[in-house]
Amino acid sequence: MYNQGAVEGAANTESGSRVFVYEVVGLRQSEETAQINYPIRKSGSVFIRVPYNRMNQEMRRITRLGGTIVSIQPMSSLQAINGTSTSAGFANNKGDGNATPVSTTSDKKGNTMTQAQPKKGAKANVPVNIYRPNNPYIGKCISNEPLVGENGIGIVQHLKFDVSAGDLKYVEGQSIGIIPPGVDKNGKPEKLRLYSIASTRHGDDVDDKTVSLCVRQLEYKHPESGETVYGVCSTYLCHLEPGADVKITGPVGKEMLLPDDPDAKIIMMGTGTGIAPMRTYLWRMFKDAERAANPEYQFKGFAWLIFGVPTTPNILYKEELEEIQQKYPDNFRLTYAISREQKNPQGGRMYIQDRVAEHADELWQLIKDEKTHTYICGLRGMEGGIDEALSAAAAKEGVNWSDYQKQLKKAHRWHVETY
Q: In the CATH hierarchy, which top-level class contains the domain 137-252?
C-alpha cells in the first residue's frame, strides 16, 4: 500500500509523462535504523511514484533504506486497471489513523486491505459506494473527543458525524472515505483516505443518524531530512471542530463483516486504531441499546479481544471494554498487550504476538471450531508473530498452519485488515 509520508520524497515532482510505480517491501523508518540488525519497524508493501529520469536514483535510495523492490509498473497500466487517472488509485494510508488503501487490486500474498472489490462469496446485500469521490456526502462533525489518556503517546480522536440528511447506510466492519480539503504537493485536489468505521450501523446514539471514526494523527520524522511530518488527512480530522463540514464517501468493504450467527465465536486481535471495527462488533453483540435495536440478532456466543497498545493511557475505549467484560464475563474475554509496561517471557516488550503465543493452544482449539471467526486489524507487522504462534500450536496435532489458514480464508472465517 502507498505510504505517502515516509517514501514520497523522491516522487514529489514528476517531470515528463513517463511515470512508474514501484512496489516496495521492508522499508525501515529511517536511514539510521537501517544500519542496525533488528529493524525497529518494517512496513508492508508501499507504492512509490517515480518519474523516468529518477528511477536509478530512487532504486539506490530504496536499497539504502533497507527496502526491496517487488515490482515496477508503468503508471498508465495501473490507471487502466483501476479506471482512474489519479496516482494509481492509492491514498496516503500507512500509519494514518487506521486508513486503508483505495486500490481495487489485492497483493500477491493475499494480505490485502482492498475494500472496493469484495471477495467471492461475500455478502451481496451490503451497501457499497452509495457516495463516490466525485459526489461525496457532506456530513457535519458533531463531536471530536480525545481517546488517549494523560501521559499517553500520540493523538487519537473519536469523531462523530451527522449523516441524517443523506442516504449513507453501512454495517459493522465497513469503511468510509474522507476527502480532506485543499490540494496536494502537485497542486491537485487531495485524494480520499479510507478509515474503518467505529460505530454500529445505528450509530453511537443508536438513532441511525451518525457515523463515527477512530483516528490517530500520523506524525513521523522524514527518513532523509529529519523533519517532522504530519499526515494530511489524519491531522485534518484530529483537529476538526464540531460544526465543520466533512466530505464522506462509501461505504466500502465486505472483508471484515460479522457472521449472522448469534452463537458464533469471535476472536479479535487488534493494535491501536485497529480497535475501530472491533468496537462495532462488541457494541452490536453486547450493548443494551443495540440489542434492543436488533431483536433478530441476540448474541449468545463467545468473543475474545486481544488488544495491543504501548501504554495504559493508550487503551482506546478502555471504560467501554471493561464494562462489557464485567457485565458479560462468560461471553467476553479481554486481554491486553501493553508493550511499554509489560514484559514477555524473554524479558522484552509484550506485543500482541506474544500474547497470542501465550494463549496459542487455547486459540487453536477455538479456531478449529467451525463457528469461530478470527479478525485481525492494525499494523501488518503483527501477522508474522501470530502465524508463528499458531503454527506451533497446530503442529502439535500434526497440522500445517499455512494450509489450514488457507482453508479458513476460503471458508470466510479468517478476516484480515492490516496496514
A: mainly beta
For the record, the C-alpha cell of 389 comes out as 504462534
* CA–CA distance, 358 with 389 (Å, rounded to integer): 8
Is 419 marked active-site?
yes
Active-site entry in 214, 233, 238, 377: 377
Nearest to 112 by CA among 125, 124, 103, 123: 103
DSSP 8-state code for residue 8: G
pTM over the 0.85 mark: no
Q: What are the extents of the domains in the chain?
A: 4-90, 137-252, 265-418
Active-site residue flag, 417: yes
DSSP string across 216-234: EPPEEE-TTT--EEE-HHH
Instruction: Write down the pLDDT at residue 409.
Output: 95
Tell me if 137-252 shares its fold with 265-418.
no
- Please report which confidence band the pLDDT of residue 39 belongs to, taking 50, 70 and 90 as the band edges: very low
Quick check: is 43 catalytic?
no
- Torsion angles phi and psi, residue 279, rounded to 5: -60, -40
pLDDT above 90 coverage of the chain, percent: 65
Q: Which CATH class is domain 265-418?
A: alpha beta
Cα dihedral angle (280, 285, 289, 291), rounded to 10 degrees? 140
What's the rounded Cα separation, in Å, for the pair 180 and 186? 15
User: Which candidate in 22, 131, 170, 195 is catalytic?
Assistant: 195
Contact 254, 119 (CB under 8 A): yes
Q: Does 195 participate in catalysis according to the annotation?
A: yes
